Amino acid sequence: MELKDKVIVVTGGGRGIGRGLCERFAQESPAGIVVADIDEDEARQTADAVSGLPVVCDVRHEESIRKLVAAAENAFGPIDLFCANAGIAFSGGFELPDERWREMMEINFMSHVWSTRAVLPGMLERGQGALLFTASAAGLLMEFSSAPYQVSKHAAVAFAEWLAVKYGRRGIQVNCLCPQGVRTRMIDGDHPMSRHLQETSVSVEHVAEKTVECLRSGEFLILPHPEVRQYMINRAAEHQRWLKGMMKLRERVFEGSPD
């Protein structure tokens, strides 16, 4: 997909990867960029920077996403590219209460389902459109500190794959962005997992540039860290060995820290 003269919506666009995407997309002369975020000030700041439209949206609620889509269409017309980018992360495993699991699943996974429901029917009628899901390398591999994060991101990747297979021949392009550490607030701090991700982290500008390249080429997996592809091959080829390797890596990452 070429972005010139296209209508683009980005959730979680107020900061981090979302803001980086908006700023890079603006260089392609789109017809309009809609910056959606739960934080009104951050949405407005990004929108001002890219001459876009700020919209407050809480992706935990399907109705909020539908209102976002309506606002975008009222302002610019049919949506050509919807970037379901909003996401959260926190540590924990099976012991986390259902409310916390539900929060992670709603934002990191169900928001993709709800945005697809809102925009895909129109795209199918027009015979063209693109869906970009920001997932994570954790959705292809492993995240040591958060079970709900890993589960939600694997679900997002699986849903994107399903959509690509079902609708690819009907003019719908699906891309799945799967970075490791990106230099945003999400990996700030001194948590062992944050320190681990910081070692190989990349800039949001790098992620955005790679995203535009893959949108243009139609490549499904967007891998700002190219080594992830080899990690996927290793995981598939010798799964048991890969799991043992992950156990050892986890021990090194969390050495001397509370588990």
Question: Would you write up a description of this structure?
Answer:
A 7-stranded parallel β-sheet has the order 3-2-1-4-5-6-7, sandwiched between helices. It has one domain (7-226): 3-Layer(aba) Sandwich (Rossmann fold). The protein is 52% helix and 13% strand. It is globular and about 55 Å long. The protein has helices at 16-26, 40-50, 62-76, 98-126, 147-167, 192-198, 204-217, 227-237, 239-253; strands at 7-11, 32-37, 53-56, 81-84, 129-134, 172-177, 221-222. The protein is built from 9 helices and 7 strands, in the order βαβαβαβαβαβααβαα. Helix 5 (147-167) links the parallel strand 5 and strand 6 (172-177). With 259 residues, the chain is α/β, with parallel strands linked by helices.
Write the layout of secondary structure elements.
Blueprint lengths: L6 E5 L4 H11 L5 E6 L2 H11 L2 E4 L5 H15 L4 E4 L13 H29 L2 E6 L12 H21 L4 E6 L14 H7 L5 H14 L3 E2 L4 H11 L1 H15 L6
Parallel strand pairs: 1-2, 1-4, 2-3, 4-5, 5-6, 6-7
CATH architectural name: 3-Layer(aba) Sandwich
General shape? globular
Assembly state: single chain
Outline the low-pLDDT stretches.
none
* Average of pLDDT: 95
In short:
This protein has 259 residues and is α/β, with parallel strands linked by helices. Helices cover 52% and strands 13% of the residues. The mean pLDDT is 95.
For this entry, give a set of tags.
alpha/beta; 259 residues; Rossmann fold; globular; seven-stranded parallel sheet
